Amino acid sequence: MGRKTGSNVITSSVSTLAGRFTAALAMFSLVVTPVAVSAQDAETPDAVATPPSALNPLGIPENFSLLGEANPNVRVATAVVNGTVITGTDVDQRTALIVSASRGSLSEEEVARVKMQVLRNLIDETLQVQEAAAQEIEVSSAEVNQRYEQLAVQNFGQKDAMDAYLLSIGSSPASLKRQIQGEIAWQRLIRRNIGNFVNVSEAEAQEYIKRLEESRGEEEFHVMEIYLSATSETEAAVVENARQIMEQLRAGGSFQGYARQFSEASTAAVGGDLGYVQPGTLPAPMAAAIQSMQPGQLTGPVQIPGGFVIIYLRDKRRILMADPRDAKLSLKQISIQFAPNVTEEQAGQQLDAFQAAVQSIRGCGDAERAAATVNAEVVVNDDIAVRDLPEQLQPTMLGLQVGQATPPFGSLEDGVRVLLLCGRDDPEVAGLPTVDEVIELLENERIQKRAQRYLRDLRNDAYIEYN
User: Is the entire prediction scored with pTM above 0.70?
Assistant: First the structure.
């Protein structure tokens, strides 16, 4: 998992916390119940250790008894990581961001799961900061504050507004700054310890370009993934958690946020974005799923070797072929509004008059005259890509000739409008990427994979005490 292919270049970077932080938030942890076999059961034939296999790699007997607490979520969500304390306040403040992003719709049980996932994320974050500090990689308070203020301006217009928002939901500026510090530290550590030692030869890049040229005209898909590993013992719990994540995504949750927090693929660092891929580069069940999907569709959990994946199809296109949705349009938007107390009959009459006025238009230069007859507003929109329009409008726009308008669309509350096509610049045929672009793409892919292994090694070597 986590393989990026295609002609686009995906540059590794510290992901931003945009959209009121939903791109950094997600919920539902993987609940893996600890298991143990009692000495008494081990003496019985039913509990004899099972040889490891593909379906049971640990060789755990089918019949066993649990010794101790079966539900890890009831313990206090705090820990000491190599001497650094993660407090309950740290967990609560980070959890508050997630609950806020979920519009407060999480049950008590779900919030408990979120807290344990947040604790796991904070442990990883602490390990990353510790490793960076051990190698004398420092992140100054000034750098963190600068990034924090950039996010504040981007999402709230000013720093004070974001401060107030965080405090109002039970979080804090310090909690978000801690996450920013961890991301910057990890990026610098990866750049120095991994990025400087990853090289892709020109011959490799040329071979990649050759394969791309041979694939001209074939379909490729812009895929986003959330990968959850599973064994035969944890499969049921993983599937249930995946389904709950699906519910939250359908309710408006940020796919990028969930991927960053929960995906175990290397693409988690970039919000689960695989980029454009061809079906042949993916596991067969995943390839079959995306080929039956339409852009904007979500599906899962799909079982693949090693676990399950939730898939979001952002887009699809044909390799090295011009995409008509990249055409740039010059539009005039003609709209009418309805009075708040309008009756259905009055609205119908107003709509009929509006349609008649639109049908009377004889080219874009006539739009203002026709609009004035029904007190409609005209707004000019130049240089609009077809793909930037609502998805349901795109096929209609692609079928219009200059001077033609879409059917009316809208509602009584928002008004009714049409789009009049005044000009269209078709896209050029996509060219092959340069050798340098391919080298950058392949290097980033390898860096992400090694970074994932690096973090796994830090976890394995860490001394963690739970309270």
Answer: no
